[in-house]
Structures are given as C-alpha cells and as structure tokens.
C-alpha cells in the first residue's frame, strides 16, 4: 500500500472521529503500521488511489474491524478501566475514597474557660437537659412525635431503600415471563398454504412455557448501581437527622423566645407599677405646692412610654407561641395558657464543644454531602461499564402440542439456551462523554462538600461567640440593674426631702426600664447561644437514630454539671418597686413547676375545644394569666 494511500485512509478516520480522539487515531495508526495494502477489486482507472487502497472497504473490512476492536480495548486499558476492573473486585470505575477538607486545628476561642475543648467529642445526646427545665423535655418529645416534615424525611428513607432493593433485584434475571396460550388456526383455501398437510387447513395449537433473560454483571455495572443507591439511602438518613436536629433546635429556641418575652413583660409591668407610685408622689408634692406641675407631666410621660412597650412585647410573645405550635405539629392555640409563666431557662457557665475535626463525623449535612460523593463515585463505574460489551444469557423452555392430552408428554417439550454479546461500538462519543459528565459531577460534589465544611466551621464560631459574649453581658447587666435600683432608692428619698430635682428620679426610672429589658434579652441570648452551638455542632442524636442508619455511635463525653437553677420569684410574689426595696431581678421559679401531663402538646379532639383552644380541664388560670396592666 503506498504511503499516500495509508495517510489518506488515516485522515479519513480523523475527519470522521476527530484528530484528538485517542481511540480512532490509534486505529488509523495500526492500519498504517500493519500496511494492509490489499486493494478492492476495481477496473475503474479514474478511481482515486486512496479509495482503492483504503482497508476499511472491500475484502479487508473484516481485518480492519478486528484491528479497530483491538485498538479500542487497548485504549480502554490505557484509560485505566481494565486496571480498575482487576483491582476493584471486578468492577470498572473508581472505588469511593473519603474526601479531604480544610479543618481548623482548634477553635478561635479555645482558651476561653466557657468553652471546653476535648479530643473525645461532646455530650451530644439529649443536650437540652442541661437547661434543667421539664417543659423542654415535653416539647422535644412532642415535636419528635408530631412534626410532619420529620415524617416526610422518614418516607424518603423508605423510598430510597426500595430503590436500592430494585437495584439488587437487577442482579437476578432481569426479565422472566410465564406464558400459556391456545391457538385455532384456519388457513385460506385460495391463499398460501401454511398449515401442516396431516392437520388440514384447520388445526389447534396448545403451548405453555417460561422465558428468561439474564444480563451478566461482568464489568460491575449493576453492582456499582447498588453501591450508588446504598449511598443515597445513607444520605436520606443523614437528611432526616438534619431535619430532626433543626426541629429540636427551633422548638427549644421558640420556647426560649417565649420565656424571654415573658421576662421582659414582667419587668415592664413591675416598672409600670413603680412609676405609678412615683407619679402619685409627684402629684402629692404638687398639691402641697412643693413642686411645679412639670414634675407631674414628666412622671406621667414616663409611665405612658413604658405602657406603650407592652403591646409590642405581647405581639412578640404571640408570634413565638404560634411558631412553637407549628414545630409541635399543632394548630394555633394558646400554649402559654398550658405552660404558664416562667423565666428564661438557666444556662451553665461552660459547655463542651469538642474539636473542629468532630464536625466531619457529627454534622448530618456534612455526612449527607459525603454520602452524595460516594453515590456519584459509583455512578462513574455505571457509565464506564457501558464502554464494554454486555454478556447475556437467554433461555426458554416450553411445551407444544396439537392435541391437549399430549401437551404434558416429554415429546412435547422444547427449549433453547442462547448466550449473547452486545457492544455499542459506534456510540463511543456519547458513552465517553457520559463518563466525563459523571466525573465532572463527582468533582462538583467534592467542592460542595468542602464548602459545607467551611460553612459549618464558621457557623460554630458564630454560635460560640454569641454564647460567650451573652454570658459576659449577663453579669454586667445584673450589676447595672442593681446599681440603678439603688440609685432610684436614694434619689427618691432625696426628692421627698426636696434636695434633688425630679429630673434625676425620672431619668433613673427610664434607665432602670432599659437595663432590665437588656438583662432579659442577655439571658435569652445566652440560652439561644447554647442552642445554636449544639445545632451547628450536630448534637442531638439518639440510639434510635443510630439504628436507622446502622452506623457506629459517636463517642460522647458528659457535659459539665450546670450551676444551680436561678431562683425566679413568681408574679404574685414579685417585690414592689418602692424607695425602700431595690428591684434587682423580677423573675420566676422554673425548678419548682408542677410537671405537666405527657399529652399536653398532643393534638386535642375536635369535641373538646374551648375559647383558648385547649381542654378546660388543662387550663390553669392562676399560673397562665399574664400580668395585668396597671392603668
């Protein structure tokens, strides 16, 4: 074969399949190297020499095709698929390897005594018990039972498991069918005679049998599909844990918002009562002619400004109540009438936070992202298996007879076993591009995983600084409230004696309102900071969750014991704001609440509604009624 002819033939391959394609470039090179120069039989002198010598036509077609198949296999081996098949348990495609991610060595505030880092992890199960509030226990139990998105997540787990079961079933013969039929055949007297001479133009045919088709998983395509579906099952389990973690955190946060607003309302009502007495004092001195009317108008303006804050606080309280109803799976109702009034749950001085590397094994969203990588990695093997031939085995066994009594005799039996091979040789572009698509998706899921790890670390740091700074504020706010209350006591006595102007007393009253409100907010912020820390750390797993995922439980450490519960006087026994008594803290007891029935947060029957939306037998008017405005 002349050199020009061989080059033209190779160029034809390049023009059809692309010069950058390794497989077909290799095929063209092999044809040129072997110098297959047997031309097609042609007597046309005007036919181009390349066409007359090209091995892809004429009698050399079979040889060229054989060499092309060899070059195809060599190119697949060069891509590493055959090597993977040999080392990965006779499955093409890569085995899953846990991805790496940038994780800090320690937290930013790891030296802060309020944050205890440990190599052994943190106490993640039932972390909310550190608040020592029995109401929270019931809220968490009710939320886990009634929250509808949690049930949706469980149904998604069931759906994913069924999908995996389908993938496992594909390892068995993919199609099987039993058939049985009866035919009465009537041939035409004037047309083609297709019947059997001995039977005449009209005869019966009875038959039944069984067919099966089995694709052999030589390259691991079906097994890789099972791996992918199994990883998706584990991903849905982690998604359910994420929903449950968010549910518990949001429910406790809504409860803390309720208690925070209750504290703020208690402070506000106590200040209204104290400012009323200050107004009465100013009016008394005005009637005696000791002061001008300015003192009376200033006292009244301060009192009305404090009263004006009550509706906004009550609105915030109702919003938090409605949010908690949704998280408990209840229609809107007055939960405050059931849970009563109490202060913000107590927060410990220090909490266990573990190490940053714990996020990789604790946070369900990160674990779900890692399972997505495993699922996508297996799909590369599924796509790569399509590059290789498919081996199948078909079989049939049946019984046929023209007479029904003879149908079950051994002579009526027939059958066949048909091994087969199928190979999409001419679809290599589509198949290779599909492999590259799966590889690109794998790279994308790895980047998303690393982004999730970075985001998780930032969220934990935000939650930690939220808790630490709120705890630092509480001590300062308490001292500010105490100092302001003492200043009011002194200024009021001096005003009664006529040694100071009313402006001093009025300004101190305003400052007390502000400082007490900030104190209540700081206490709520500290409690919400703990919720945020455990939410971002991935805490809140239970033994039941571990059983769902079939995962080894994460090691835990007992949290530091919480300090004694802060005593919070009840509304009925709160101290009056007078010159002789300093109102440092206006709060209530939460440690001595009467435990409520287990069904408190369960949906009520339609036949038991009341004006508050709760059964009359459960209404506790003495405990649940909010403070009354003093006008």
TrEMBL record:
InterPro entries linked to this entry: MdtP/NodT-like (IPR010131), OMP_efflux (IPR003423)
Cell compartment(s), UniProt: Cell membrane
Predominant location: membrane
Any one cellular-component term (Gene Ontology): plasma membrane
Comp. bias regions, Polar residues: 568-583, 590-611
Entry membrane topology: Lipid-anchor
Coiled coil: 296-323
NCBIfam families on file: outer_NodT
Name of the featured protein: Cation efflux system protein CusC
Organism this protein belongs to: Rosistilla oblonga
């Amino acid at each position: 074969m002349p050199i020009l002819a061989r080059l033209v033939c190779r160029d034809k391959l390049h023009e059809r399949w692309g010069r950058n394609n390794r497989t077909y470039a290799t095929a063209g090179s092999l044809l040129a190297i072997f110098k297959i120069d047997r031309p097609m039989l042609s007597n046309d002198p005007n036919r181009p020499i390349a066409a007359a010598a090209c091995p892809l036509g004429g009698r050399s077609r079979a040889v060229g095709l054989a060499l092309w198949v060899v070059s195809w296999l060599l190119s697949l081996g060069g891509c590493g698929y055959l090597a993977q098949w040999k080392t990965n348990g006779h499955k093409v495609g890569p085995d899953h390897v846990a991805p790496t991610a940038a994780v800090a060595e320690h937290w930013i505030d790891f030296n802060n005594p309020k944050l205890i880092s440990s190599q052994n992890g943190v106490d993640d199960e039932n972390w909310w018990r550190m608040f020592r509030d029995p109401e929270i226990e019931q809220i968490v139990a009710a939320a886990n039972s009634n929250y509808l998105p949690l049930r949706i997540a469980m149904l998604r787990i069931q759906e994913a498991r069924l999908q995996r079961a389908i993938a496992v079933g594909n390892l068995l013969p993919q199609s099987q069918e039993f058939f049985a039929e009866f035919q009465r055949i009537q041939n035409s007297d004037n047309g083609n005679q297709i019947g059997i001479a001995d039977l005449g133009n009209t005869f019966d045919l009875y038959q039944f049998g069984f067919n099966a088709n089995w694709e052999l998983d030589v390259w691991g395509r079906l097994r890789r599909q099972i791996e992918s579906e199994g990883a998706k099952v584990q991903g849905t389990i982690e998604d359910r844990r994420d929903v449950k973690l968010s549910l518990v955190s949001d429910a406790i946060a809504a409860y803390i918002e309720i208690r925070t607003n209750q504290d703020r309302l208690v402070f506000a009502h106590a200040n209204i009562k104290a400012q009323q007495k200050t107004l009465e004092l100013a009016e008394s001195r005005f009637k005696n002619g000791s002061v001008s009317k300015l003192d009376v108008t200033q006292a009244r303006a301060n009192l009305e400004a404090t009263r004006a804050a009550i509706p906004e606080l009550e609105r915030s309280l109702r919003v938090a109540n409605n949010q908690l109803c949704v998280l408990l799976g209840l229609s809107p109702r007055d939960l405050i009438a059931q849970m009563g009034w109490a202060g913000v749950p107590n927060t410990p001085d220090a909490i266990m936070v573990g190490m940053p590397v714990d996020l990789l094994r604790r946070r369900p969203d990160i674990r779900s992202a890692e399972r997505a990588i495993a699922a996508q990695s297996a799909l590369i093997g599924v796509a790569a298996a399509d590059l290789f031939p498919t081996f199948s085995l078909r079989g049939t066994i049946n019984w046929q007879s023209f007479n029904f009594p003879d149908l079950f005799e051994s002579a009526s039996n027939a059958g066949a076993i048909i091994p087969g091979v199928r190979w999409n040789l001419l679809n290599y572009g589509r198949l290779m591009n599909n492999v590259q698509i799966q590889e690109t998706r794998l790279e994308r899921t790895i980047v998303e995983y690393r982004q999730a790890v970075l985001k998780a670390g930032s969220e934990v740091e935000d939650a930690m600084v939220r808790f630490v700074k709120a705890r630092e504020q509480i001590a300062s706010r308490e001292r500010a409230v105490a100092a302001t209350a003492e200043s009011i006591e002194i200024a009021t006595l001096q005003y009664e004696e006529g040694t100071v102007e009313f402006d001093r007393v009025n300004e101190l009253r305003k400052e007390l309102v502000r400082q007490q409100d900030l104190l209540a907010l700081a206490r709520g912020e500290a409690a919400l900071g703990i919720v945020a820390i455990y939410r971002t750390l991935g805490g809140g797993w239970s033994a039941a969750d571990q059983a769902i995922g079939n995962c080894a439980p994460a090691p835990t450490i007992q949290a530091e014991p919480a300090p004694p519960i802060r005593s919070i006087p009840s509304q009925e026994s709160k101290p009056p704001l007078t010159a002789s008594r300093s109102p440092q803290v206006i709060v209530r007891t939460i440690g001595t609440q009467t435990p409520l029935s287990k069904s408190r947060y369960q949906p009520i029957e339609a036949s038991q509604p009341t004006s508050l939306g709760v059964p009359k037998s459960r209404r506790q008017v003495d405990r649940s009624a909010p403070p009354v405005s003093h006008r």
